[in-house]
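Exercise 7. Predict the joint structure of the components listed below.
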Amino acid sequence: MIAPERIAGLAAEIEKRLKRSQLDIPVGVSNRHCHLTEAHFKILFGRGAEPKKVKAIKQPGFYAAEELISLQGPKGVLHKIRLVAPYRAHTQIEVAVTDAVAIGLKPPVRESGDVKGSAGAVLIGPAGKVEIKEGVIVAQRHLHFSPPEAQALGVASGEVVRVRAGTGGGRATVFEDVVVRVSDKYSLEFHVDTDEANTAGLKTGDVVHIA
Amino acid sequence: MIAPERIAGLAAEIEKRLKRSQLDIPVGVSNRHCHLTEAHFKILFGRGAEPKKVKAIKQPGFYAAEELISLQGPKGVLHKIRLVAPYRAHTQIEVAVTDAVAIGLKPPVRESGDVKGSAGAVLIGPAGKVEIKEGVIVAQRHLHFSPPEAQALGVASGEVVRVRAGTGGGRATVFEDVVVRVSDKYSLEFHVDTDEANTAGLKTGDVVHIA
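Solution:
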């Protein structure tokens, strides 16, 4: 016999999972991009330059800038790496593994901000170059939630979940190792890189579900 | 009450699934490559040329050749597309979606050999160019089995299964829509393209399992 409390606990868990799985989560596909310190920006684009906004991105306060840099690795140069502003305390370049392989880099899979001991490279801008010892990462796929969204769904920051994507498109994929990140700066979105998006046939704005 | 025959049937199904999930399946990552008709080969490499073998690939009878072509799409040119020989009845170029996007092509996801109505492009070789109206595809991920392997596992050609990959590497992924292909020309292997391999942190020779 299963104890009644146990049954109640299982029922609550099933209810939570069902609720989670029903939420439509929009996809945000991240092309390769960079976040720069003010000091690195000035070297790359000139002392008098400031980031020029092209458009807001879904995460509040961030915007895609006009500025593009190139990234030089041991085997080649990757072009058109867009700046996402505003400035950050640490320079961070986010690339897909396919991008990295093309120029001979082996960046680790990391959460944004965790650049310690990551890959180095040379950043090239119209006004100058910067060699960084670390800062190149492959972004860990993750879900952004605002605190009310997270609470409604019963997910906590740092929790690891599975996301089903691409159902019915011939490349359905269940992404495991998806990290939940909760912040009042975030709004609901599943962030993947171009390798991941292409694997499941996803584009920005498509809808996925926690599995 | 569940009928005894139904229980026996379920038990047999569970046993089959357990057996399937325990088989170690090696991964074969396909970089972008091409299969050429003899006529196209001669235009691209010259009338007197023949494919030069570099190394056998795991599927019996096939080999990677020395010859490389380039592929021109509306937005650019993709280089270093290796010939996989011998000649085929239809020219077929297999690229990852990331490759295709880079040159402005939108090839469909197809099984090898199914090129009807797929994407066109211009093939460029050292001796000449060929414009093809169709032939560029993104390969449907698939499993190769020899007939005895398929029989032992209870899988049929054309069956669609799920494959779990990359467990423990921080990018675990369950690939759905994996097509089983059985032929006495095949040996056990899970074929993915570079986007798929990078999404799960896979390289050739890694081991995956039917899920």
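Discussion. The interface with chain B takes residues 96-98, 101, 109, 140-141, 167, 170-177, 194-196, 198-199, 201 of chain A (CB under 8 Å).
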